[in-house]
Write a structure and sequence with these properties.
Helix 5 (about 255-265) crosses helix 6. By secondary structure, this protein is α+β, with helices and mostly antiparallel strands. The chain is about 20% helix and about 25% strand. The longest helix is centred in the middle third of the chain and has 18 residues, at about 105-120. A hairpin with a 4-residue loop joins strand 13 and strand 14 (about 225-235). The protein is built from 6 helices and 15 strands. The chain folds into 2 domains: about 15-150, Nucleoside Triphosphate Pyrophosphohydrolase (Alpha-Beta Complex); about 155-290, Nucleoside Triphosphate Pyrophosphohydrolase. The radius of gyration is 21 Å and the shape is globular.
Length: about 290
């Protein structure tokens, strides 16, 4: 069976009732049991046991609080906005080497916190009038003090898909990938198109193949910086490839035996498979399992 999807299964109740009630939020922020996630910019700081590091709320820290949720004991958990002036590279994946230290549930919680802190760092000013904005709704929104416009965190929908033809699936690689690494093809959903249309367009643009029978498999939040990966399958009408080399360096059709070898890490496999946290690996596991 496919592995559990990375960055899913966070263990906190998001507690919308506290986000929307300013008085209740203020009470939660003064709860002596409250905990705050320790970050270095937007990267997590490992605890001695290798998990997330939580500290009591520091009353001397005047950075705004964002509510991540409450646990089963009703203890509120927060994260603070990044210090002003700190440069944040939301697409940096240096934290990937530390992620294996986290449980799946902690990785999910960290992924949400990372995306939220990054969003606030990039939306300190109103997109309508340019004035400065302030946090509201428990940290899950910003409001402009001049024009009263409200802004909320957004995610970018991305389709990621396996095209199948004659018992094989298509994998590809970009120039920046490690040597031998191949993955499922992916692309952002554009305004005015459905997921099915996005899958068909991206596969044609990047690989030159026409597909039909697009079906949904699973989704995954991906906090680099804040995407929702929407995993799909599709059936290619013809295996002939015409690559857009500005997007794809190489691509190939692989059968189930070759995919199994890659997933097992065999030295003789024709490609290196995506890591366990990635939905691309889930799609390959799912396809092999079928």
């Amino acid at each position: 069976m496919p592995l559990p999807l990375g960055f899913t299964g966070a263990w906190l109740d998001r507690a919308d009732q506290l986000r929307t009630n300013a008085e209740a939020f203020a009470i939660a922020a003064t709860d002596p049991r409250a905990r705050c996630l320790v970050l270095d910019g937007i990267d997590f700081v490992p605890s001695e046991g290798g998990g997330l590091l939580w500290e009591p709320l520091d009353p001397a820290d005047d950075r705004a609080l964002m509510l991540l949720g409450i646990d089963d004991d009703g203890i509120p958990h927060f994260v603070r906005e990044a210090p002003a002036g700190v440069r944040i590279d939301a697409r940096s994946r240096t934290v990937m080497r530390l992620l294996p230290l986290l449980s799946g549930e902690d990785a999910a919680l960290y992924g949400g916190a990372r995306s939220l802190v990054d969003w606030h760092a990039r939306h300190r000013f109103c997109a309508v009038c340019g004035s400065s904005t302030d946090l509201f709704r428990g940290g899950w929104g910003r409001r402009c003090g001049s024009c009263n416009a409200e802004h909320f965190p957004r995610v970018d929908p991305v389709v990621i898909m396996l095209a199948e033809c004659d018992g094989r699936v298509l994998v590809g690689r970009q120039g920046g990938f490690p040597p031998g690494f191949f993955s499922a093809l992916a692309g952002f959903v554009e305004p005015g198109e459905s997921l099915e249309e996005a899958v068909a367009r991206e596969l044609f643009e990047e690989a030159g193949i026409r597909v039909s029978d697009v079906s949904y498999v699973a989704s995954q939040p991906w906090p680099f910086p804040s995407s929702l990966m929407i995993g799909c399958r599709a059936v290619a009408k013809d295996p002939l490839l015409t690559l857009d080399t500005t997007e794809i360096e190489a691509a190939m059709w692989v059968d189930k035996a070759e995919v199994r070898a890659a997933l097992a890490g065999d030295m003789g496999a024709p490609f290196m498979a995506p890591p366990p946290l990635a939905i691309a690996r889930y799609l390959l596991e799912d396809w092999v399992g079928r």
